[in-house]
Each structure stands twice: as C-alpha cells, then as structure tokens.
Amino acid sequence: MDLRRLLLRLAAARPHVLLVALPGATEARLAVEAELGRRGWPAAVSPADADVLLVAGPAGPALAAVVGRVWEQMPEPRVRVVVEVVADVSGTLDSAASQLASWTAARPEYGGPGPREQEHRGPEHGGDEHGGHGGGMEMPGGLPMADLGEDRDGLMLDRLHVALGPVLPDWPAGLVLRVELQGDVIQEAEAEVLDPGRGGSSRGDVPAAEDARHAAARHLDGLARFLGVAGWADPAARARRLRDDLLAGAEPAAVRGQVHALTARVRRSRTLRWLVRGIPAGERAVAARLADRLAALDAAVDGAPPAQPGPSRPPDLAALARAVVGAELAAARLVVAAVDPDTDLVAEERGARHA
Amino acid sequence: MTVLFWILAVVAVVAGFAVFRLNSMAQVTFALLASFLAVAGLVMLLGLGYLGVVIVLMMVIEMVIMAVFMVMYMMNPAGLMPMAMYHNKSGSMAIAVGTFAVLAAGILLTDWPTRRGAPAPDQTFALGEALMGGQMLTMMTLGVTLFATIVGTVVLATARGRYDRFGDDLDRRRADDPAGGGPG
Amino acid sequence: MPEPMSAPAALPLWWVVVLPFLLVAVAAAVVAADASLTARARGARADVLLPVREAGRLLVGQRRRTVAADSVLWRAGGAVLPVAAVLAGVVLPLGLRPVADLSVGVVWFNAMEVLAWAAVWMVGWGPNSALGLVGGYRFVAQGLAYELPHMFAIITAALGAESLRPTDIVAAQRGLWFVVIMPVAFVVYLISATAMAFWGPFDAPVGRDVAGGAAAELSGVDRLVFAGGRRLLLVVAVALAVPLFLGGGAGPWLPAWLWVAVKTAVLLALVLLVRRRFPTIRADRFTEVAWIVLVPLTIVQALVVALLVLNRGGAG
Question: In tens digits, what is the pLDDT along chain C, a chain of 316 residues?
Fold first, then answer.
C-alpha cells in the first residue's frame, strides 16, 4: 500500500516520544528534552499517544518491568530505544524515526487479540504494581476492587487504588505515588522511588558545588515542570528553552533579561496565583514554594551566591506522601511539582506510607 | 416520515427495554438516554421542534449527571462490577411492560376524533404564549417552588454552613473550605 | 429535518455534504496555527503540514483495546463528538444562509453541543482507566459550571432579536451589533464556548497532569476522531458568536460569506492567543466563579436587554 507508506513517512517526521526518565539519569533526560525541543517533536503524555518509547538511563529491575508494561500499551507502529550516553541522543532519535518511516509489520486487525490484551491477562498483574501512568489496566477481572470508606463529608463512598507514576508527564523520575482515591480526593498515599541510587550523580553533573549556571538551569527545569502540570504550556516552553540554552553553554548573564521577563510574567499572572492559592504542601504551601523558586532563579542569573547550597539532602518521601493526603488529584500533582523531590538523591530502598 | 417514525419508535422501545437487559450501570444510563433521544425525535416529527430539542438538552444533562452520581458511589471505571440500576427486577419489569401495554392498547383502541382547527403557524410561540399567558401564575409558582426545593435540599444536605466557612462572626475574609478556590 | 424550513432562507441541500469538509478544513487550519505558535515558543520551526502529519500518523496507528473496557460506550463516545459538532454547525449562517434554517436554531445548537457532555464522559469511562475517568468527570463538573452562563448568553442574543432563529438574530443586528448592547453575554459566550470544547485554559479534562485525561487511552483512528471532534466543536462553538453578537455577514465592501469567514477567523485567533495567556483553570476553581459571578452577571445582562426590547416596543 503506497498510501500507507506515504502516511508513515509523513508521520515519522514528527513522532511523539514518550520519555521515561530514570532516577540518576537526569543528564540524559535533559539532553533528550533539548534535542526534542530543537526538532519540534512533541512529548507524548501517555503510552497511547506515543510512537517512540525512549528510556533515558539504565533501568533497574523494577523500572525495567514498568518500561516493559508501558511498551505493551503502545500502539503500533512503535519503536523502543534507550539513551545512556548523552552524545547518542541525536543519532538514536534519527534511527527511531527511520525505523518508524519504514515500518512494515502487519497491523493486527482490530478486534483480533492484540499483543497488549493477551499479555495484560498475565499473572504478573496480580499485584498492586501497575505500569506507568496508572491507566488502561487498573482492574482487569480478579484485581482488587475499590473498597468503601468515609469521604470528607462523611458519606460512605468507594475508594479506588491508583498508582501515579513513574511514567507521567512532568513527574519526578522513578517516583511512584500509590494513592487511594475517593472521587478526586486522595485519602491515603504512599511514596516510593523505584530503583533508587543507580545513577550516583545528582541532577546535571555537578553534585557538590553548584555553579550559578547549573543552579539556574535546575530552577528553570523545575519551573518548566511546575508550569507544565499547571497547564501553562507557553511559559513552560520558554523556561525549557532557556534551560537548554544554559546547559548548552550560555552564560547566565546573557539570558538574564529573558529569565527576568519569564519570572515577572509568572509572578504577574493573577490566574496562576488564584489557581495555586491555598494548597498546602508540607512545611510550605505550593504558592510559597513557587515564589521561592522564582526568587532563587532570579538570584542565580543575577550572579548572587545561591541562598542554599545545591540540594544534597535526599527528599523526604514520607513528608511528600503526607502532603498529598486530602488534596484533590490536580492539587496533588501541583504539590509534587512544587516540592519537586530530587529522586536522584534517594540512596536506597525507601518507602513511606501515610494514612 | 413514516419510515423515520418507525425507526425512532423501535429505537425508543428497544433502548427502553435494554435498561432491564444490560448489567452495567453506565450502559443502562445511556440506553435510557438513547430511548429519550428517540422520543425527542418523535416529538420533533410531530412538528414540535422546540419541545423535541429541549428534551434532548435536558435529558443529556440529566443522564450525565446521573452517571456522575453513579461513579461517586461506585467508582470502578468501565463498570467492572455487574450491577443493576433497579431493585426487584421482575417487579419493575412487569410494571414497565404492563404500563407500556396498557398505554399502547389505549392508544390503539381509542376512537380518536378527527382534527378540527389547524396548528398554530409558530408552534414555539404558541407554546410560550400558552405557558406564559394563561398559565403564567401556575408556571411562576411552580418555578419558585422548584427553586426553593433545590436550595432547601442543598442547605439540608451540606454539613457546612456559612458559620463554618466564614467564622462565628462571619468576618473571615476568605472562606475556610476543604478545597480552596472561587472568589471568596 | 422535521422542522418546517422556509426554503429560500437555507442553502441548497448539497451543502449538507460540503459542511463537514468545510468545518474540518477550518479545524485543520486551527491546528496548524496553534502548532506554529507552540513551535515559536519552543524555538523550533513551524510546520504547515502538521495537521496532515498528525492525521496520517493516527490513521496508520493501531487502535487499542484495554482490559475490561466498556467498548460500546468508549467508541460511541468518540464518534458522538464530531457528529454533534457538525449537527450543531448546520444552523450556522455561512454568509447569509445556514445549511438548515431552523426556527429553534439556537436551542438546537445548544442541544447538540450538550451531547459533548455525554461523549466526553463516555470516552473517559469506557477504557477502564482511572485517569480517563478523572478526565471524564472533570468535564462534567466543568459543564455544570459553564452551561448555565452559556444558555443565558445565547438566550440574551435571542431575546434581543425576539427570535430563536439564527438568521433572524442576524437580521435584528442590521442597525447595531449585539456585542454593543450585550458585551457581557458576548464575553461569557466565548468563555463558555472555549470551556465546552475543553480548549485551554479550560483543558483540565484532557490535562497534562492526568496524562491526557479522557483521551489518555485513545490511539489510532479513535484518537483522530476524538481530537478532531474536539477541534470541530471549538470551531463551531466559536463561529456561532458571529451571528449571535457580531452581525453575521454584515459589513461593507466584502460579500457576506467573506465577512463571516473574517470574523470567525479573528475570534478563533483570539481563542488561540488567550490559551497562551492563562494556565489551565481547574473545574474546582472555576465552578464557584461561574455560579456566583457569571450566572448573576448574565442574568442582569438578560434583564437589561429585556428592558431595552420592551422600551423599543417589542414583545407586544
């Protein structure tokens, strides 16, 4: 079919890439995001939307299983690639695109037993460990049903067990938040980082003495992810672009004007203030954490010495789990994005449960 | 016209009966909606455009809100757990089928008089005049009563009143709500 | 159409076939324009072929099935969206005449766009996915917030013209566009039209934070139909603002159809730009504003217009 080949070639010029970031491989993630931005390739938000599954970094056993399940969920044509060395990014993406363009595998007829359906019935799904974005296979027959509990108005309503992460847009690498949802409200939460401590290095490649450029890039990255979760794509894209410029070698002083314009725009937005108002996130509320980040970002490009030396304390996952309890799902996403736990620093097996 | 009538009539009855046959609450809700939509089509066939369209409008909103309540009480997506929307299946089915049979028999057996007069040139206008002209008082009373009922139900149902939200002296600037937001 | 049509007021019957293609073309232009704005923000180059690429990609893509899915509702929901948008589009005056000149046109329009409630909810519910379901009920919550202000805004325009027929509403604006005497209704209409197509900043139902929400599990042609239907709904909903508030095809020099096209394009551009200015407004925040600010505002607006109509001796 020539038409089909033509469509495949057209589509392969702009594949949707589902980026699975692994703890300890932030550098690879940043390199991939920068390259995707240069090419104008969109980042897929869910496995269903993806053509390329790109795993940034070496996956440990738990994450390898997650990646496998995400792969099963992806529709054909699909390509799966791994980026471990930053220098490989461009070539890897090129080869993924050319594989998509020349995709020939027979497409299973709709209605036939697609690959994902068979495999999803497998016994490995008996546990609570769900792949990626928590959808698609929440409760096939035999999995635990929602149970009952009182909601915040005192009504007995169903509770649903949902695993958020580790494959979610703008989500900390490797983090899994197992929550009990009642409607939109999280009633219980448990946080865990899958395969922690494998990368060994912190975000960027400067663990100890963080210079102004990396501090600015780190804050821009955090800001971009927060704005992405808040659904404000335009400044998020600008923040990413500035971050990529910095990491590509631009001097902080050179981008100062643009960064100040960005932070001013975010601060000025009354809508954003109204949207993040009154959401507690542990010791500081979401709005305060956002203000902190903007101030730190401004300071970093102004050349001021960072108020606090780079993050070296591993994030407190128990506190994170506590912070999302009682929040609505959208607010919980904002909480996680505002706290922005650096999962690279999680050393060994850690879990935290809060009821 | 006749073909359309029969299609819609059959859809209405079959979808209505499907409410008893399906075992997923979501499918039942939308089967009921399909039945209502077919009835709305029949009403439009009668030349009552406004009434037909309003039936579509109201029924879609009602059924979807019903579906949300359903999710609230049983939030397993895709209706994994087979569950019926009614109690006493045989009883309710007997009542439904019986009502249908009696009404249908009544319609078929009645000796309908031949039409005298002609329909109004603008049905919508005539409808509005009938409701808001002669029956103005009835409609206004009905409307206010319904509105009072809704407000009263909400006030009774909610556990939190303005004293919880704005403090004992109602002097809090911003309401203390479990989920913030809104203008105040 | 069961509705008695006055023959000269409607376009010839073959327009029924043309209308969907026309709407799809406009929707594709919207996609291309939006994507080029996005590319500019990111520093990448714009791509005019983008709608074709995306559509082609979804056409050759595999359709997915999920475990224990409610396939009937899932597929039906996706299909309802574009159908509802096109059905709503039949009452749009494309120039002077719509495809179907219904006497209850604006109510028909409202009824068709309300089908989106059912459609999005079904698409969210169907795949047996928690995030999809969240997207589905987010849209219903949003619908409960925007629908009443939306109805009041539409009714205000109908009240000003004393008719539910879009062509009559256009005719009533010969002297003065309704946007002048009912600016609040116009703004509220645009807000609610955007919310109805769950377009930014009201895109929480398909939000990034829930991995695409209602659309999270869609792939292949299902995704194309859903995403396309959403754009069609946006185009149609925004386009009705032209006959309701901006005098339809009225304007100097140019033919009526061109004026309609120009006005619609301006409104669509406005909607695209507004999306960039605001973060996603979540339903939990929007609902309260809608009910205690927008609903009273639109009621007062309707009252003002009613007094104007009575004053000029209408409704006699």
Answer: 344 444 457 777 888 888 888 888 888 888 888 888 877 777 667 777 788 888 888 888 777 777 666 777 888 888 899 999 999 988 888 878 888 888 888 999 999 989 988 899 888 887 777 788 888 888 988 988 899 999 999 999 998 888 888 888 888 888 888 888 889 999 999 999 999 988 878 988 888 888 888 888 888 888 899 989 999 999 999 999 999 998 887 778 888 888 888 899 999 999 998 988 889 888 888 888 888 889 999 999 999 988 988 888 755 4
Q: With respect to residue C1, please indicate whether it lies within any of the assigned structural domains.
A: no
CB contact under 8 A, A145 and B81: yes
Write the DSSP string, A214-255.
HHHHHHHHHHHHHHHHTT-HHHHHHHHHHHHHHHTT--TTTT
d(C-alpha A127, C-alpha A161), whole Å: 12
Across the interface, whether the CB atoms of B76 and A158 are under 8 A apart is answered yes
β-pair partners for A192: A176, A351
B48/B39 Cα distance (integer angstroms): 12
Contact B78 C128 (CB under 8 A): yes
Confirm or reject contact between C203 and chain A (CB < 8 A): yes
- Which CATH number fits the domain A2-101, given the four candidates 3.40.50.12280, 3.40.50.1820, 3.40.50.300, 3.40.50.10890? 3.40.50.12280
- For A327, the 3-state DSSP assignment is coil
Separation of alpha carbons A3 and C136, rounded Å: 35
**Neighbouring C-beta atoms of residue A112, cutoff 10 Å:** 10
Q: Per the domain annotation, does C98 fall within a domain? A: yes
Q: Evaluate whether residue C86 is within a structural domain.
A: yes
Q: In chain B, how many domains are there? A: 2
| B60: contact with C, CB 8 A cutoff | yes
Q: Which residues of A touch C41 (CB under 8 A)?
A: 233-234, 237-238, 241
User: CA torsion B12→B17→B23→B25, rounded to 10°?
Assistant: 50
Can you give the residue range of the structural domain that contains C95? 7-311
Distance (Å, whole) CA B38 – CA B49 = 14
Task: Give yes or no: residues B133 and B45 share one domain.
Answer: no
Please count the residues of chain C: 316
Tokens of A152: 């915040």
Chains in contact with C, where contact means 3 or more Cβ–Cβ distances below 8 Å, are A, B
Say which of B60, B64, B181 has its CB closest to residue C288.
B181
Note whether B92 and B19 are same-domain residues.
yes
Judged by a CB distance cut-off of 8 A, whether residue B7 touches chain C is no
Question: B89 is in which domain, residue-wise?
Answer: 1-107
Residue where a domain terminates, one of B76, B107, B138? B107
- The pTM (predicted TM-score) of the whole model is 0.84
Asked if the Cβ–Cβ distance from B72 to A157 is below 8 Å, we say yes
**pLDDT (tens digit, 9 = 90+) per residue, A181-239?**
777 788 888 888 887 765 444 444 444 446 777 888 888 888 999 999 998 988 888 88
Tally the domains of chain C.
Answer: 1
| CB-CB contact of A262 with C64 (8 Å) | no
Structure tokens at A271: 């809508």
pLDDT tens sequence across A282-305: 788 888 888 888 888 888 888 776
Say if residue B21 is in the same domain as residue B81.
yes
Say if residues A218 and A203 touch (Cβ distance below 8 Å): yes
| C215 interaction partners in chain A (CB closer than 8 Å) | 49
Residues B60 and B33 reside in one and the same domain: yes
- Is C181 among the domain residues? yes
By Cβ distance, the residue of A141, A152, A275 closest to B178 is: A152
